[in-house]
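Z., the sequence and structure:
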Amino acid sequence: MARRKIVAKDAGGAQVPTDWLAAVPALTKGEHLPVLEAVAGLRGKGTVYPPEELVFNALHLTPLESVRVVIVGQDPYHGPGQAHGLSFSVPAEAIAAGAKMPPSLRNIFKEIDAEFQQDGGGSEPLVHSTDLTRWARQGVLLLNTTLTVAAGKAGSHAGLGWSSITDDIIATASALCAPSVFLLWGSHAQQKAALVNTARHLVLESAHPSPLSAYRGFFGCGHFRQANEWLAAQGRGVVEW
């Protein structure tokens, strides 16, 4: 059955799905609405990513009851056509139009290749789409802690109030979801570890996959294999990375 969407009258096109809206205190109280109003004002002055209708894309593609893995990013990509509401993900059409694969995402795929080639997958790299919707539909919540950004200005919306809302989303996932894996890469994401109940969930931390830090612990972290092994042991299946 399709999930009905509740949209506050002043929320514009940024719709929050009903399951998350009902469960997350910050969303239930409407704390996202002033942030959306501020973003709407900024959209009137310049380009903001992602498009309004994709701001809560991660919540639409990964219902609360289906969460198995949470990957915490920082803020959306700030280049044309790249951001679509999923951390680290880029639509395939943006790549086809000439956008380059972000280096962090390239390094994520390198780590996946290395981990699963150890299982007899051969020496040829796996074929990966930059669009991580396939992960989201398998229960991987790809959540940036800031959900919008001005074109060409990384971190430009970090002070608008998104962080308290997305912290509440992470805390709600910890409180209500079945045992899940939280992948926290880099110091920014690791600050969210305190929001997760480690008695119920597995938290895996490493350096960020950025080229500036990937060689300081992201490469060789084994997170994708570890996540699948732990999920399987919990009877929650595995993710096809």
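The radius of gyration is 17 Å. The first strand starts at residue 5 and ends at 6.

Let me know what you think.
H.
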